[in-house]
């Protein structure tokens, strides 16, 4: 069990046991994948139609749940919008600047100024 001072059953939180180390590496790999985009402190989901059709997003969700439940390693980098959508809370107003695809963003900005 984690304590407030960052120790877990005799191990320092950053060293941890092999399971925690594996789950930390898994979470890093998930957040670095093409399924998450945005700055390091505000990640949101990208749209990958192949991944959507193959059920990859469901698998990623299950992997994140395993990391949370078994290792205490959380994805503390989700954007406010993604976190609200996951928890069922009202999301903040949409901002065009959140769009990572530069072509799509420029098309929307051009259309909004007409």
Structure description:
This protein has about 110 residues and is mainly alpha-helical. It has one domain. The protein is built from five helices and four strands; from the N terminus they run ββαββαααα. It has helices at about 20-30, 50-55, 55-70, 80-85, 100-110; strands spanning about 5-10, 10, 35, 45. A two-stranded antiparallel ribbon has the order 1-2. It has a two-stranded antiparallel sheet with strand order 3-4. It is elongated, with a radius of gyration of 17 Å. The relative contact order is 0.12.
Q: What general form does the structure show?
A: elongated
N-to-C SSE string, H for helix and E for strand: EEHEEHHHH
Structural class: mainly alpha
Query: What fraction of the residues are assigned to beta strands by DSSP?
Result: 5-15%
Number of domains: 1
Cα-atom radius of gyration: 17 Å
How many extended strands?
4
Low-confidence stretches: 1-11
Distance between the termini: 57 Å
Number of helices: 5
Helix % is 40-55%
Question: Secondary-structure map with pairings?
Answer:
Blueprint: E1 7-8, E2 11-12, H1 18-32, E3 36-37, E4 44-45, H2 49-54, H3 56-71, H4 80-87, H5 102-112
Antiparallel strand pairs: 1-2, 3-4
Helix pairs in contact: 1-3
Structural features:
G2/M phase-specific E3 ubiquitin-protein ligase; mainly alpha; disordered N terminus; elongated; Hect_E3_ubiquitin_ligase; 4 strands; 114 residues; two-stranded antiparallel sheet; two-stranded antiparallel ribbon; ubiquitin-protein transferase activity; 49% helix; 5 helices
